[in-house]
Amino acid sequence: MQLYTIGQTARLLGVSPDTARRWADAGKISTHREESGRRLIEGRDLAAFAVELGRGAVAEDENAHTSVRNAFPGIVTAIKLGDVAAQVEIQAGPHRLVSLLTREAAEELELEVGMQATARVKSTNVHIDRA
Hints:
The protein is an alpha+beta fold. It has 2 domains: 3-54, Multidrug-efflux Transporter Regulator, Chain: A, Domain 2 (Orthogonal Bundle), CATH 1.10.1660.10; 70-130, CATH 2.40.50.100. It has helices spanning 6-13, 17-25, 43-54, 103-109; strands at 3-5, 32-33, 39-42, 70-81, 85-92, 95-102, 116-122, 125-130. The strands form 2 sheets. It has a 5-stranded antiparallel sheet. A 3-stranded antiparallel sheet has the order 1-3-2. A hairpin with a 2-residue loop joins strand 7 (116-122) and strand 8 (125-130). It is elongated, with a radius of gyration of 17 Å.
């Protein structure tokens, strides 16, 4: 059976090692310790968890509700405001996501370069959630 460290798990799931540790500490993903004390996750457990994560069954913020499942937490890197439309760019790890939305929506979110935000991708649309 393939075993994964917390760091490997984090990379595979696209989260920080701290997030993977929090999930393990909360019992959301089962781990066991090897003799050296390092926590390991069995491949089958990780695969099942990844499926649940993909379905949106695992959330950092239990109060968040959305039908959009493909979330890319990141940092706002650019905002271009036009008369009617706005373009917001988010860097989420190695991914650069661009959302075109109304100027009014961008202003209501009070987005600023450097703030945390989550890009949610559904079909060909990129939605922005303020962190």
